[in-house]
Amino acid sequence: MLMSMGIRMYSYHSERVPRNSAVLVVSNHRSVMDALVLMSAIERPIRFACHHYMGQVPVMREVVKQLGCFPLESDQHRQASFFHQAIGLLKSQEAVGIFPEGTSPMVQPPQPPEMGKFHRGFAHLALKAPIEELAILPVAIAPEKETINSAIPLRVLSFFDPTEPLFDQDGWHPLVLYQTVNVMIGHPIWMTPTHRADYQGRFARKAVVELVDRAQTEIKSLLDQGCP
């Protein structure tokens, strides 16, 4: 599909991808193409958690379903929905994709190689999931050449997800399309008994912060390598 769209994608360090275990693929995010790009680069099916509104908007809803994505519930039930669906997939040794920057970079794309602050849900999931062999795989999507167009008015999207404050403004949702993109695969971070032992009581927050910082630092380093 990417080739038919005239997109040139280059993948680096594919030997780092765990092939026979549960994996949390964690990546920066700026384009609707990111799920396709990551599945192509990593060469295994990935089930992506995506924003609630993507499961509500006609056409977009069908696209994310075909890609195997699982839209999250509304704001009130979002975290519980994410944990329940993701743990079920990981127990089957599937790969689950997460974009921990959330919605913001899709609405206000940063300049490459910048990225937004990571939400911590993926770290809680990795530390809490009752799975013996589980790795977080940090991946950087580093565009060399792209175009940015206008897709849909933001206020239209607020009808589908009124809980998202980013949609409560004038302007258009941007559509970032890659022409040339590098995918830089990082070293997997394996969850160990030590990690899970640290995720207890008053030390739990420290364990989560350290894991998030480790993944975010590696992805930023990979972005710096992959962006021109």
UniProtKB/TrEMBL annotation:
State the name under which the record lists this protein.
Phospholipid/glycerol acyltransferase
Q: Give the matching Pfam families.
A: Acyltransferase (PF01553)
What region holds the Phospholipid/glycerol acyltransferase domain?
23-144
User: Superkingdom, according to UniProt?
Assistant: Bacteria
Record bears the keyword Calcium: no
Single Gene Ontology MF annotation: 1-acylglycerol-3-phosphate O-acyltransferase activity
Keyword Acyltransferase found: yes
List, in alphabetical order, the GO biological process terms annotated in this UniProt record.
phosphatidic acid biosynthetic process
Keywords on record: Acyltransferase, Transferase
Q: Which SMART domains match?
A: PlsC (SM00563)
